[in-house]
């Protein structure tokens, strides 16, 4: 009787820890279960492009309009050289002076015009299309846009001067190439400089290619649309000569730039992986 009682008590004491729950183990199991069932997103440690659709589009339009009105108030900042008119049989020296004056007029003014455009667009892109490091991105975007716009504008001005000197009609292809020279250079340098700050050189090289293609798309769509809808516009000059044409140019090209930044340079969604405990 006593030995059976002791035996029963022994078995109960042995089985009791198995029936009791350990609070520490329960909390650990619950945490492991939550960690196993919840997705873990990898957040980049460096900055990245985050151009929202509305923010990027409206910012680029605003920057383009500001640049347009500044350019319109300055152009032409550099006056044409004071030279006598060419006579019936001008000398070679006088012809050379007129050629040089025409080239200087358009090259210098276009360098200033599109330097202002690149400065404004680079600043707004650096502020709106980035999630971190906005001040360095603004400075880099504005500086690269200024340099790229001035260099491209100078070269495009020489081409415009040549067209005027030869009294040649500006074809749709030539006009597209002139606009591409400006928009491709401005977009490419702005995006490359900001991408170097945001995501490193290798990612910046990839974004550079996308930005150059974006500049080509802007030039092609603008010139094609203008020739089909408003064929009275003179495509000889990159910067429009009338107010209405200028507003159309600034709004459409800047809007296409903002849309291209959103769809071409937005960051890929963060990868999600399931971790098992």
Could you explain the architecture of this structure?
With 277 residues, this protein is mainly alpha-helical. 74% of the residues lie in helices and 1% in strands. It has helices spanning 2-19, 23-37, 53-74, 92-128, 134-166, 172-199, 201-229, 243-265; strands at 40-41, 272-273. A two-stranded antiparallel sheet has the order 1-2. Helix 3 packs antiparallel against helix 8 (243-265), helix 4 runs antiparallel to helix 5 and helix 5 runs antiparallel to helix 6. The radius of gyration is 32 Å and the shape is elongated.
In short:
Helices cover 74% and strands 1% of the residues. The protein has 277 residues and is mainly α.
Low-confidence stretches: 1-47, 270-277
Order of SSEs: HHEHHHHHHE
What does the largest sheet look like? 2 strands, antiparallel
Question: Strands of the largest sheet, in order across it?
Answer: 1-2
Average pLDDT works out at 80
Which structural class best describes the helix and strand composition?
mainly alpha
**Strand fraction band?**
under 5%
Compute the CA-based radius of gyration: 32 Å
User: Using DSSP, what is the number of strands?
Assistant: 2
Q: Tell me the distance between the termini.
A: 50 Å
Q: Compute the number of helices.
A: 8
Helix content: over 70%
